[in-house]
Design brief:
single chain; alpha+beta; Ribosomal Protein L22, Chain A; two-stranded antiparallel sheet; about 45% helix
Length: about 150
Amino acid sequence: MIERHGELFLTRVYTAHEIEYCTARKASTQHYAGRFAAKEAVLKALGTGWTRGIHWRDIEVRNEIGGRPRILLGGGARDLCEKVGIAEMLISISHCRTHATAYALALGRTSMNEINARLADMDDDDDDIDDDLPDDLSDLDEPGQN
């Protein structure tokens, strides 16, 4: 995707901090792929995908001093977490030359039954969830699509 869409793709999907981090690495493509996988994993852990105004750049991967990745949420992703009671998002990322994978775990002070009930209530309020899909880069695959 980077070769195909270049700077437009990078600035659409990654925050300035993520671009700086990945570009500074010897195998930058692997780091971009790992962060892309992490963003997809977070969307799945949230249980919403592209709905509710969540955008790629609302999910940022940062590294702690020891290298442990952590997720920072902003915009629609942070708003959704507050609404459904998700207090923290844990992430594990692995990548090599040809593959990247990530696993996200949403933790909260609320039971999963309550979170699912809140999401269901929010689904009832959504008239047209397609409004939140990206309007440019239309040939860009959505998260989870191969």
